[in-house]
Design a protein that fits this description.
Shape: globular
Largest sheet: 7 strands, mixed
Bound molecules: pyridoxal-5'-phosphate
Radius of gyration: 22 Å
């Protein structure tokens, strides 16, 4: 084969730069190791341990058995969009037209992809308060943009600092991407701070993408829906879903809501890439919205019990832990162990078979912390704390 031909072959096999440079998720690497071990208590999982509540399951089964095995409208069934509109309005007072301002997606994962792809021109920047959900930076890069991380700190209760956000604005900034209640810190942001973030967005004419997937999982504090703040709606894309609130991760169902002109853009991408969210999952999600509140309340009460156990337990071990008011994660500072977060997570797994996720997997500001999910049975958390006690006696 001539040199020219072999070069062509090589080039054909090369990935696009934006894909080739993507780092694999720090979480995945860790769970590949966990999967090979026995007797591990995992505090690493980012999904509810509950099975989807039975009436929601039954609605999915009924949907299949009655022959709903076809595509739906690209935006999702009108019944689901209408119910979602009523739901968002009832909980938070934000109004969306179900005909033109809501698209049902394959989880918030797809909604994020749509939002970023629809908004970003190549090289445009998105400011992201971190630590944050592991996909944010990667999704910005995949959409051709540049993520700009703004670390939040435990001394500020992991609240994003509007002044830091403003200092990061450049002529290329297009949007601010926020996710509260937060994965991995459990922080819930105050109305005051959200209002100040809105002021920055208004001053520089930026979009806000607000991922509110944990909206109903709050403990003793209200969730503030960003687009419900007066004047925020017109520059916000609201992303939400069913995975966490209703324990429906495997159904793959979520939504994006926002002003019609943008939703039209999101819909076009969705139309050509996904067509529509799974019909069965849409029918189950409708049941969740219509009759699921009791189950959400029960799960929240159980998470709260576990939250008190784990936060108290970690603090007692000398691992200083901020009190999380949302989601289902505790985010202890592990510097008293004398280890960095990667070493801590690795040794804890090897020596005591407890899996936690190094905080640095979630971006800047996560160094010196690990994420412990309490979407795990109460008794398992008790056992994990005993194992961590042994570990800290050896290393603390
Ligand atoms: C903050 C946040 N956003 C989005 C997602 C993805 O959710 P979905 O299952 O709806 O795609 C997750 C999952 O962990 C998350 O933590």
């Amino acid at each position: 084969m001539s040199t020219q031909a072999s070069n062509l072959n090589v080039r054909r096999r090369q990935l696009a730069d934006r894909v080739a440079t993507l780092k694999p998720s720090g979480i995945r690497k860790f769970f590949d190791i966990v999967a090979t071990m026995k007797d591990v208590i995992s505090l690493g999982i980012g999904e509810p341990d509950f099975t989807t509540p039975d009436p929601i399951l039954q609605a999915g089964i009924r949907s299949l058995q009655s022959g709903q095995t076809h595509y739906t409208s690209n935006s999702g069934t009108l019944e689901l969009r209408q119910a979602l509109s009523r739901h968002i309005h009832r909980l938070y007072g934000a109004s969306y037209d179900p005909q033109s301002e809501v698209v049902i997606t394959v989880g918030v994962s797809e909604a994020l992809y749509l939002a970023l792809t629809a908004l970003l021109n190549p090289g445009e920047e998105v400011i992201i308060p971190t630590p944050c959900f592991v996909a944010y930076q990667a999704e910005v890069i995949l959409a051709g943009g540049v993520p700009v991380e703004i670390p939040s700190r435990m001394e500020n209760n992991f609240q994003p600092q509007p002044a830091d956000i403003e200092a990061a604005v450049t002529p290329r900034t297009r949007a601010i991407l926020i996710g509260y209640p937060n994965n991995p810190t459990g922080a819930v942001v105050s109305r005051q701070i959200l209002g100040e973030i809105l002021e920055v967005a208004e001053k520089y004419d930026l979009m806000v993408i607000s991922d509110e997937i944990y909206d109903q999982l709050v403990y003793g504090t209200p969730h503030v829906c960003f687009p419900a703040i007066p004047s925020a709606r017109e520059r916000t894309l609201l992303l939400g879903g069913f995975s966490k609130d209703y324990a429906m991760t495997g159904w793959r169902i979520g939504y994006a809501a926002g002003p019609a002109e943008w939703m039209n853009g999101l819909l076009r991408i969705h139309q050509y890439t996904i067509m529509c969210a799974p019909t069965t999952a849409q029918d189950a999600a409708l049941e969740a919205l219509l009759h699921g509140q009791q189950y959400v309340d029960e799960m929240v009460a159980e998470y709260d019990r576990r939250r008190n156990l784990i936060v108290g337990g970690l603090n007692d071990l000398g691992l200083s832990t901020f009190e999380p008011h949302g989601a289902f994660y505790a985010f202890p500072n592990i510097t008293s162990s004398g280890m960095d977060e990667e070493t801590f997570a690795q040794k804890l797994l090897e020596e005591e078979r407890v899996a936690v996720v190094p905080g640095s997997a979630f971006g800047l500001g996560g160094e010196g912390f690990v994420r412990c999910s309490y979407a795990t049975a109460y008794e398992k958390i008790e056992e994990a704390l005993q194992r961590m006690d042994r570990f800290m006696r050896r290393h603390g």
